[in-house]
Amino acid sequence: MLSRSEKQSSVLLIFPPGWSLNYGAPHIGIPLIKGYLNNNNINCEVRDLNLETVLDYNISISEAEIRAFQSSFDPEIAYKFYFSFADKLSVIAKKFNGEWNIKSGFIFDGCDFSSSNDIEEYSKIKSPFTEFYLKNVIPDIIDKQYSIIGISIAVPSQLLSAFEICRLIRKTGYTGLIVLGGNTITRLKNELYLDWVFNIIDCIALNQGEKTLKLIIELTKNRKSFENIPNLLWKDGNVIKYTGYKKLEENEFSMPNFNGFPIGEYWGVNYLPVIAARGCYYSKCNFCSIPYAWGNNGFIGLDNPINVINYIKTEVLNH
Fold first, then answer.
1. Residue 204's beta-bridge partner residues?
2. d(Cα 236, Cα 216) in Å, to the nearest integer?
3. How far apart are alpha carbons 242 and 226 in whole angstroms?
């Protein structure tokens, strides 16, 4: 449960639909940012819309159902069980002229994720998530009057749903800051110098977004310019600027904070991920996204092992 101070927070972090539903836990990106902000006395609320939207359609797989397969596993029964849920998503998606995949989210028929024009146009179309946004998310944003809304895009299939909710938020007359971040956004940095993007968002936090978002929050309170905030793509007048890369130092690492996430409602067996290092020591495989998302050369460093052990003892085992 959120504490009273967190309920009064002016910062909202959103994870939009499009991430795989197979995982029994939140994506670790927003919990890492929440942990960092909380450690710096900045409270924030979180919304995992990837899970919330599918639960709104009453589609979920319980831990008990998964445990039943473990005792007497039958591949054919398991196959039919899994695809019965895939079929439910497909029925919904067809009403919106698209496909909704358990692993890779929803996409409209004919939409090309590699085309910025397609992302722009298809994000304006009513999707399987529109009604949920209008009914359960937008009223909350209006009521709580958040000053900053951060949206994390970890995979390309979240682009449409993320930009759709940005548009809906702006249509309410929202005047606070909308900040994008995440793995995919970082990898698409050079493709995001687009006016239409900055017509609906204010800035983009690249690579490790913890410190960047903290500085945005602090400077916004003081009404200062973004000019000196590292890892930031922002629009100054008519010019889109990049402030340059600066890595997160090892002494700035924070453990993830999962308070506010609906642990226990994720599909299957629920768990909490733990992170002990940032990026990959080798960081040279051509097929891997780590060098692009974590920073120059892909390796940021190791956390203190004592911090990891203490986190497991105090947070994970007692959550």
1. 180, 233
2. 15
3. 10
Token pair recorded at residue 295: 């920073």
Which SS3 state, helix, strand or coil, does residue 150 take?
strand
Q: By three-state DSSP, how is residue 61 classified?
A: coil
Could you tell me the two tokens for 151?
């949206």
207-239 pLDDT, tens digit each: 989 999 999 998 876 656 788 899 999 998 899
Q: Is the pTM of this model over 0.85?
A: yes
Closest residue by Cα to residue 215 from 252, 264, 175, 160: 252
Query: Residues, the chain, total?
Result: 319
Contact 129, 96 (CB under 8 A): no
Instruction: Based on DSSP, count helices (H) and strands (E) in the chain, helices before strands.
Output: 14, 11
Helical axes 29-39 vs 209-221, angle rounded to 10°: 50
At residue 2, the pLDDT reads: 38
Contact 93, 99 (CB under 8 A): yes
> What one-character DSSP code corresponds to residue 296?
G
